[in-house]
Amino acid sequence: xxxxxxxxxxxxxxxSKLNYPVARKVEQMDDYFGTAVSDPYRWMEDVDSVELKxxxxxxxxxxxxxxxxxxxxxxxQRRLMELINFERYTAPARRGSRYFYSHNSGLQNQNVIYWHxxxxxxxxxxxxxxxxxxxxxxxxxxxxxxxxxxxAAYSIADAGSDWVKWHVRDVTTGNxxxxxxxxxxxxxxxxxxxxxxxxxxxxxxxxxxxxxxxNYFHKVFFHKLGxxxxxxxxxxxxxxxxxxxVGAQVTDDGRYLVLHQSxxxxxxxxxxxxxxxxxxAPIVRLIDVADATxxxxxxxxxxxxxxTTLDAPNGKVISIDLNHxxxxxxxTVIPESKNKLSDVSIIDDTFIANYLADAQSLVELHSLDGRxxxxxxxxxxxxxxxxxxxxxxxxxxxxxxxxTTPGTIYRLDMKTRKSTxxxxxxxxxxxSLYETEQIFYSSKDGTxxxxxxxKKKGIALDGSAPTLLYAYGGFNVPLMPEFSSAHVMWxxxxxxxxxxxxxxGGEYGEAWHDAGTRLKKQxxxxxxxxxxxxxxxxxxxxxxxLAILGGSNGGLLVAxxxxxxxxxxxxxxxxxxxxxxxxFDKFTIGWAWKxxxxxxxxxxxxxxxxxxYSPLHNIRPGVAYPATLITTGDHDDRVYPAHSFKYTxxxxxxxxGANPILIRVETRAGxxxxxxxxxxIEATVDQYAFMVRALGVVSLK
Length: 701
Known about the structure:
By secondary structure, this protein is an alpha+beta fold. Strands 31-32-34-33-35-36-37-38 form an eight-stranded mixed β-sheet, sandwiched between helices. A seven-stranded antiparallel β-sheet has the order 8-9-10-11-12-13-14, with no helix packed on it. Strands 3, 4, 5, 6 and 7 form a five-stranded antiparallel β-sheet that branches. The protein contains eleven helices and 38 strands. Helix 3 crosses helix 4, helix 3 crosses helix 11 and helix 6 packs across helix 7. Among the domains are: 343 residues, Alpha/Beta hydrolase fold, catalytic domain (Rossmann fold, 3-Layer(aba) Sandwich), CATH 3.40.50.1820; 88 residues. The N and C termini lie close together (12 Å).
């Protein structure tokens, strides 16, 4: 299939300045440490108002009319559906004699959960969320299986909300028990060893409107099967600090309940432990100072292994004996290395240590005393994740992928230490036609930053190739090589895909993350701008052919950068972004991000730093900004949709010239999780059609 002829005609679409729907302004002035800040679109924070709905409907109509004029749009949609129509699996997890995994036959809106007895048994459907609602916007957000594989606790989210309901299904019969748990959020489910009930996290039922209300005082509850939620027992909370997030996990041996406590989105945490063999045993605060990350790996009786960043920003493994828990008795098992230790599991009494080495996976095996055994041979440069299971298991599974390899499931035999393909997708394109290179460039302050660049082999580096630059840069999240059908489509059309690992992310450990937080957030924008400058200077593309894309914190990233360097980009797609950085902490869980961004209403110094880059507050009237598409979901209770509404209205009012400023508001959608495939395809095609038209592409090879 070729899109060249369709795209060639896109160049004939000459845009004139659009007539935007009128957005009313109000007299709203706030004082931040003596600085008066105007907020003329404050009324848009009432997302249920009739006035706002009228504005949203008109904006959606304008956006759809714009992308509908792109001749290549329908061809792109057909090709994207072809590329994504392949079987996809997750790595299986064994519980008792049963293996559980998710599967998508290709174009199913939601993945289906299956189980089978033995490694190659006959698959049986456990949960099919495609049957939960007519529009497939009700999704499974969490799943926990009892040790014997007989019961499954699963949570469902409606329209992408972070609020979930827990249900319990009998695996053998496929029927649900009467148990239902509501008002759960940012929660898993952890079963008692005997399967008589599970621990979960949640909040008290909100008194105000659930989409907008701030969430404070996270709590751990226990639900006993066969009882109503009203009888659920409060197991743990921290009334002394409303901003703590808590979590509960039963150890594999069933003896202990480990209670995790962290402030907002900080990677540092406290730990407490309760002995479940003694019903009246007190909760013991094992680690009562959140001075580092303390992530439990496993235990052998009273001996616990933890992954920690204490005096080791790249991570190390330590052991703590509950009989002698004082810090002077802690022992280092696997010392810190030059690479970030991102995850550790114990299978067959062997540590599987998953490192990040320049934003790609490096997996090592170590004995329980920390001795290095060998490095696991991976298929290529890419991302490996999984490696779950129990200490006594002799096998584990992992998924491997990269920019041109869809997720392939491997079975690792721990006795032979050999990996074999367990499930492999059938490719619908020829990966040998493409190449990925990793380059390193210098940011504004000289910091060395990695970037992956993927493209079709043989593309001339003469500055003419349309290029998509994607990044995130926050919350200790690393960007690694992963497969995307949309990126393959873009490269098929002659485009280049570039992905840098910015400071603020998790590519190089906590020091790298910290360098892009709070007062140092500008480093993230400098890193991204330097990536764009490198691509232009090295003639991978030119400014007029460069599109930038980011979502959530990445939406903030691309919006801030387009305002700081509008001449450097040809198109901007800002998805579900945090745009009003002075009020992000006023809605739902936004307050938790103060650990990342700072507290604009509590610290004069942090206000000053945030005010300098907050997208909503740095729009300059009379500037010709790049063509911009803003996207959000009307049910987004993570990044409240008012962020995108206010930013769109302000940018439209300030824009000069013909470059469009558009917004696309998805209905019955949240922050992105659980969105049905049909909606994701429509949204992706609209984004790419927008970029093709905005970049004024003459031809794509």
